[in-house]
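**Fold tokens**
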Amino acid sequence: GVPHCGASLHEPNKALRIELNANSSCIWQIQRNANQTVRLVFSHFKFAPSSSCETESIKVFDGPSTASPLLGQVCDDTDAVPVLESSSDSLTFLITTNSVAFPRNFFVYYYFFSPGSRTESCGGQLTGPNGTFSSPNYPAPYPQFRYCVWHIQAPNNSKINLEFQDFFLELDRNCQLDFTAVYDGPTSGSGLLGKVCGHAQPTFESSSNMMTVVLSTDDTNSYRGFSAQYSTVPLPGPVEPNTTLTCSSDSMRIVLSKSYLASLGFREAHLQLNDPSCRPVVTDSIIFSFPLASCGTIKKDEGHSITYTNTISLAPAGSSITHQRNTEIIALCRMRNNQTLELIYTTTNNAIQNLAAAGSYNVSMAFYESDLFSKPIQYSPYYVDLNQTLFAEVTLHSTDPNLQVFIDTCTASPQPDFGSLTYDLIRSGCNKDDTVVTYPAFENHGRFKFRAFRFLRSFPSVYLQCDVVICDSNTSNSRCARGCISRQKRAFSPYTWKTNTVVGPIRLKRDLRAAEHSESLTEVEAEETPNLQQYNFYTLAFVVLISNILIVVAVILKHHKHQVGYSYQNVQSS
């Protein structure tokens, strides 16, 4: 039905057809006592022609009132099918209209859902020059209340041709109920290529190597869905080698060549980021380098990834930047699954050029002397006593203060490649060793302590590997916020970023003492060896001397005997 101006809604799901006239200001509040969040879909909206966001819009607030944080805004020039999600069990939206006499109409539906549940497992990342994907359960009817997002990334300097080989969704005039939306870029905030429903075989072509496909369903009729394939073709024209974007967990760096700007008809004097106070360094190139969470950078949590987007506005020479914003350079960093996707593209009259590269998270792990975590262990191997308490800290090196580090799994192994022989300290956020104690999240650190484990009794070295999940701390239903979960539930639990880090080896001090004792014995033997040789030399010399003396004595005695014998014979003769 057509509700009056505003309402308080408590049903688990509901569709609203809203019709408003001029000078309206109406508030709808959605709230339900459930451990779930709200997904709100504006599948059709029609404002007064040429109305501005300042005078006519839909504002969505993340909470029970308009005093809650602003989640998003929909205006007449919104080039997307807006889908907004709350962080708790309440959400509010406000529709205001200007004084122009014009019938406005909107179609919106909402439903409560549990993030990370089996029903939310759809969509994904597609990479490579070609690929296929399909709706959930295809060719069986797709399930109700699904929101699936596929991100397609083809090789650099190519564009994507998307073809739906089979397509059958619920049909209505404005595709308000079940629909597929295709976007010309890396997110659902990119330009809308089209929204389709019913029975057809639609095709789409991107202007870059990035495309996003969305499937949204309600709770009424379900059909077999779709089967789609994509292929790529090279983009014409040369690639500008001196236009690059570099992303890290600390910063974003955009380098633009002057020749590239000149080819667009612009000069470096006419550039600004979302925050105009952040200025570039101009040398042979134009360089914007700034912390990731500054200069007006927009962060968006997409469930399986976090994107950071900033825009360089360009204005032709002699025109005002504030009024001439039809050309922009958009820089986007997407953090996901142990890698950083970097994308930079220029939009001029809907034409897009882009460059992309890959990076990694800057995450490290170290042992500390105590639970103060002020003095790291600087040497390796780390020699410990059996049952000694060890203090470990995982650090994300990032300038974004709203990131949280969660230690999901830590495994010990005597093998540096973590083969079949392993021992769990932490698994799925749950302590598996009785001696493990995890500390509350602190800034960009994850900390825990444990006692030296039994592996050290049987193996000379032990290594420690931890899987780390990194979430937006403002998202109340993130993997980090849920803490310990069972293995059964873990399969359905999404995370924002995940990476691992290794530290070691750890060895027992008794092995160190044994090694030191063996080494000291070797040194003593080495020192004593020349003394023994010297002793043997002197002994030999003494023996030789005695031998010589004995020989001399023997000769003397023999000679003396001869003399005595001669004298005796003379006496007898006489």
Remarks:
- Residues 509-573 form the longest helix (65 residues).
- Helices lie at 258-263, 455-458, 479-482, 487-490, 509-573.
- The chain has four domains: 8-113, 123-234, 245-317+325-338+347-359, 363-485+496-513.
